[in-house]
Design brief:
Helix content: 25-40%
Strand content: 5-15%
Number of helices: 3
Strand order of the largest sheet: 1-2
Number of domains: 1
Radius of gyration: 15 Å
Amino acid sequence: MPGHPFYGTAEWKAVRLACLRRQQWRCAHCATSIAARGSSRVDHIKTRAERPDLALEPTNLQGLCIKCDAIRHADKGGSHQAASAPKCDANGWPTDPKHHWNKT
């Protein structure tokens, strides 16, 4: 629900930024860097639908990379995104030896 008005509030933006800083701009699942613009997702561990009282609770938030967010939300079509996303190691380097970053 990225288009939901909740995500435009000052309160959400502040707690989102605090979450990313707390995790030192690393994905909570794979530890890849999520510092680049557009590469981070802040996920509610317990959804806002399940627990609206935890919507702004820092302990209910986790910063994820796009790939891990897609895997977590496969029910929303994320499995397709995850399958097509490049695979990388914990440092964010592609594991595919044919990837152009791995060619010398």
